[in-house]
Amino acid sequence: FSAANTTSLSSEDEENDESQRNIAFPCDAVELDNYNGVIIRVARASEDKRFQVGIVTEEMERRRKERDLDLSPNTHVTFGADLLLNGFDFHFAKKGSVVLKQWLPETLSRLPHGPTHQVGVGCMVTKGNGEMLVVQELTGPAARYKLWKMPTGLLDPGENINDAAVRELKEETGLDAKLYKILTFRQAHSGGDRGSDLFFVCWMKLIDENQEWTKQEEEIADIRWMPIEEFTQQELWQKSPVYQEMNDAMIRAIETDQGGMSEETHELGFRPGSNTIYIPSKM
Predict the structure, then answer these.
(1) Local confidence band at 46 (pLDDT 50, 70, 90 cut-offs)
(2) Which of 136, 151, 160, 194 has the fewest Cβ atoms within 10 Å of its own Cβ atom?
(3) How far is CA 244 from CA 238, 248, 249, 250, in A?
(4) Catalytic positions
């Protein structure tokens, strides 16, 4: 692609094919990634759907033996449907955007999968007398069993584990707290279209021990303090070796205050931005 504002996709044939000289493709719609792949951003290209499909199909063939192609059609849903008929497949979707993919070389695809995991947190809040804060939900699987559970929830895009735990506890109970340490985490694979799940048990410390809870009316049926032994002895937990082990880890942590991971945020250094790491607790 030339550095001009527009360029023909088959420039070597330009002198011999008058029709190709009139098919221009915006350079700012094409990007080369770090893995020798081509990204075409449809929203920046022509508004003529047939024009786009024809050009993309031609460009696919030209690059088939040398690189992969990733297409971000954004709001061009009808264009995306045409591309699916031309060998593309879904890679991932998010609000306002759908990314399609096609591996162009005639070899086994090495393209990574799109996002495959959801990440959740459970907030363990304790008192010095061995009690922990538990909730009953209005709807969902836990509500069906009338299960007392920790406040839980999923991370938002771009949200750190510690920030999600603070937010979820505040949303469900009205309580302000900070992460003390991550005690354990569970990995699960549901299969099918549900993907995989990571669930982190976060030991939270209240900012003010005297604050009163306020339940989230849309999701929470009840809140109470419960002895942790009573929590772990609920019938559903007794049927699950996974949750028995997780509950044992929580009990050991409360009894000994040992183990777990604490968060630290540091500048990345070699480029702008910071990362949060979770390391063995120093206490």
Answers:
(1) low
(2) 194
(3) 7, 6, 9, 10
(4) 171
